[in-house]
Amino acid sequence: MINSMTAYGRAEKAADGLSVAVEIRSVNSRFLDIVARLPHGYGGWEEPIKARIGACLERGRVELRLTIRDERRPEAGFEVDLPLASAYHQALCQLRDALTPGGEVPLALLAGANGVIRPSEVEPDLDGDWPLIEDCLASALAALQDMRRTEGANLAADFSRRLDFVEAGIDAIEADCQGLVEVYRKRLQARLEALTEGVVALDPARIAQEAALLADRSDISEEIVRARSHLSQFRALMAGPEPAGRQLNFLLQELGREMNTIGAKTDQADVAHRVVAVKAELEKLREQVQNVE
């Protein structure tokens, strides 16, 4: 099965005055890289959340954002840090005495000092909130995986079309390379006749032997067999149940090497053009495979 690494999932849950929202985005990456952004006080659930994501996904950069609105808490209050305020006041008095003796130290200036007045912190009920967070996370992951599968199905359809083109190109290359011995024999004989201008009698048996040697050096049957094997394995991995992005990328690299070898062995223009077309299609496949889990 082909799953895309690019996807998005979101879910919201609410119960007894607690509202939870989970957003998950994933993009392609060589490994599984999870970034979780949690509200203040909920850092203790970072590892359990990452573990649940890791149990569902194999690869990709995953960004999760957890948003919580708790209406059960009392109205926000404020705390005054008196020791800090006293220290600020003493410092301000020293500054006043040095610059403007007899002046007043404004209370607003003291109240606005960083950390003197701060909101009261209420510790969240981590254990009590976790079931709702876990349920919301599961729903967001399900949405993410649904989108991954949908995008993967589109990729698989595109892969199938391109693989058919590559296979047809390989078949045409094989057909073009049939009868190479006769092609080389005629070409060699024509060149020798042009050089000797009919003065020297040519030995047909020797020409046939040299043509066979040239054809053997240009034989691409092994490369064709391996290329077809790679295509067969590619299709089998696409249909398999396990994530196969890395294996598919490797097979495309091997197909590219076979095409390079075929191109290096042949000196026929038609075959060279077909090799270029197949390699261009393989490059498009490699770009798409980078997004496969």
Description:
This protein is α+β, with helices and mostly antiparallel strands. The protein has three domains: 7-74 and 127-148, 2-Layer Sandwich (Ribosomal Protein S5, domain 2), CATH 3.30.230; 78-119, no CATH class; 152-289, Up-down Bundle (Butyryl-CoA Dehydrogenase, subunit A, domain 3). The chain contains nine helices and six strands; from the N terminus they run βββαββααβαααααα. The chain has a four-stranded mixed beta sheet with strand order 1-2-4-3. β1 (7-15) and β2 (18-27) form a beta hairpin. α4 (126-176) runs antiparallel to α7 (221-239). The chain starts with 6 loop residues before the first strand and ends with a helix. The mean pLDDT is 84.
Query: What percent of the residues sit in helical stretches (DSSP H or I)?
Result: 55-70%
In total, how many domains does the architecture comprise?
3
CATH class of the largest domain: Mainly Alpha
Taking the alpha carbons of the first and last residues, their distance comes to 10 Å
**Number of helices, counting only DSSP H or I runs of 4 residues or more:** 9
Would you tell me which CATH topology of the largest domain applies?
Answer: Butyryl-CoA Dehydrogenase, subunit A, domain 3
Content of β-strand: 5-15%
Order of strands, main sheet, comes to 1-2-4-3
Instruction: Spell the H/E element sequence.
Output: EEEHEEHHEHHHHHH
The count of DSSP E runs of length 2 or more, i.e. the number of strands, is 6
Give the assembly state of these chains: single chain
Radius of gyration (Å): 36 Å
Shape: elongated
The assigned structural class equals alpha+beta
**What is the annotated CATH architecture of the largest domain?**
Up-down Bundle
Unreliable stretches: none
